Amino acid sequence: MPQTSKDPVALRSIIVLLGGPGSGKGTHGQALAAALGYEHLSSGEQLRDHIRRATPLGLQAKGLIENGQLVPDDLASELIHGLLAGYSNVRSFVLDGYPRSLAQAKALEQIVAAVGGTVTQALYLAISDDEIVRRLSGRLTCKTCGKTFHESSNPSARAGLCDRCGGELFRRIDDEPATIRRRIAVFHHAIDPLLAFYRETGRLAEVPAEGPVAEVSARVIARAKRGGEGCEGAPVQ
Ligand SMILES: [Zn+2]
């Protein structure tokens, strides 16, 4: 079907992936984007890139992230707007790590409309708090390429070194135990209004996200392909 500028919905669709820290948004986001032929955008990765490059935005975000806090809504929205606007030739996106609050979800509606698109679905990767702690406390990240491993469930072939690029693995400061607890508290505070927002607009789907990575990715992809059938399952506690 031909697309015209009068039909922004057909021009760009954005699927947002929601979930707590360690829920696998990056991993499943990549798998989903590949399956649908969408571009994958990770706001967390982009922020860490800004921090590495010490941009004004990165400098503002650095202390907050290391402390387990969310970056302020206006800063996060600025980042996402820059990202989406920068991809003038890309039709559709899987977005992970944003929005993280109701205010950001509302801002995203405007940002996406401004680049000629619509948020078609919000997929919530549901995992328990115990699972979040288990995953994050063993997580190791490559200093060079950002790929993540897990000490016990997904170790690299050579201890301390990345399988993909040979870079050095390290524990991110926001994956330290005290920070993990704070991140979980921050997450719970923000997620309920966010889920309610997408549920009320018929775009929320909850995907159980514990278990083998490939199985969860398959579930995420299947759910996204089924499209906007509204909410399934009970509200998350
Ligand atoms: Zn690497």
N/C terminus separation: 42 Å
The percent of residues in helical segments reads 40-55%
Whole-number mean pLDDT? 86
**What is the beta-strand fraction?**
15-25%
SS summary, helix count: 9
Classify the oligomer: single chain
For the largest sheet, list the strands in their spatial order.
2-3-1-4-8
- Which residues sit in consecutive blocks of at least 5 with pLDDT less than 50? 1-10, 230-237
Judged by helices, strands and strand pairing, the structural class is: alpha/beta
Shape: globular
Largest sheet: 5 strands, parallel
Q: What is the number of strand segments?
A: 8
CATH homologous superfamily annotation of the domain at 12-127 and 190-226: P-loop containing nucleotide triphosphate hydrolases
CATH architecture designation of the domain at 12-127 and 190-226: 3-Layer(aba) Sandwich
N-to-C SSE string, H for helix and E for strand: HEHEHHHEHEHEEEHEH
Rg, nearest Å: 17 Å
What binds here, in terms of ligands, is: zinc ion
CATH class of the domain at 12-127 and 190-226: Alpha Beta
What does this structure look like?
With 237 residues, the chain is α/β, with parallel strands linked by helices. The protein has a domain at 12-127 and 190-226: 3-Layer(aba) Sandwich (Rossmann fold). Helix content is 47%, strand content 16%. It is built from 9 helices and 8 strands. The chain has a 5-stranded parallel β-sheet with strand order 2-3-1-4-8, with helices on both faces. Helix 3 crosses helix 4, helix 5 (73-86) packs parallel to helix 6 and helix 7 packs across helix 8 (177-200). It is globular, with a radius of gyration of 17 Å. The N and C termini lie far apart (42 Å). Residues 1-10 and 230-237 have low confidence and may be disordered. It binds zinc ion (ZN). Residues 142, 144-145, 147, 162, 164-165, 167 line the site of zinc ion.
